[in-house]
Amino acid sequence: MQNFIELWREGRTRFTNQLASISPEDLFKKLGNSPNSAGFLIRHMAEVELLFAKNVFGNMDVKVDAQTLKAGKDTGEWTDLRSLKSIVEEAGIQLEKAIESQKDWDAVIETKEFGKKTKAEALGRISTHTAYHAGQLAVVVKYGKP
Question: Which domain holds residue 24?
Fold first, then answer.
């Protein structure tokens, strides 16, 4: 199990290491005609991690209001850097607790979003989801315009 936690922590640094250098002005940036701002991407990654912690890995202590998923698009409201960093930190804590609590990584879970997966496969899914959007975030911050 410790290997799964280490794998997830290391993969997540592709996201979290960026947060130290992101400015409040960066949150408004978008790339070309892309619909999503840096602020939206940060909020979205944290929300999906919280959803995985609760709905996939069973951490029922998690409280999540998946605003980016409800909205389905960037509404321009994710512009408070302190709040975004706070939800990212909470998502990390809750997902790590959820990973630590797993007993059977071969157990199959099913969701409407991605069908049937083992818990190990689901961990791969959330790790790559975060890394995928972390790459987008890096490009948006570097080349995007408000």
Answer: 2-58+67-143
